Amino acid sequence: MAATSTRAKNTISLKGSSAIVAEYFNYAVNNILYQRGIYPTDSFRQEQHYGLSMMVSKDQGLTAYLQTVTKQMSTWLEDGSLQRLVLVISSAIGSKEVLERWTFVVETDKAVLDGGPPPEVPKESIVKDIQAVVRQITASVTFLPLLEDPCTFDLLVYTSKDSAVPTDWEESDPRYISQGEDMKLRSFTTKVHKVDTSVSFRTRE
Question: Which domains does the chain have, with CATH numbers?
Answer without folding.
Answer: 14-161+175-202 (3.30.900.10)
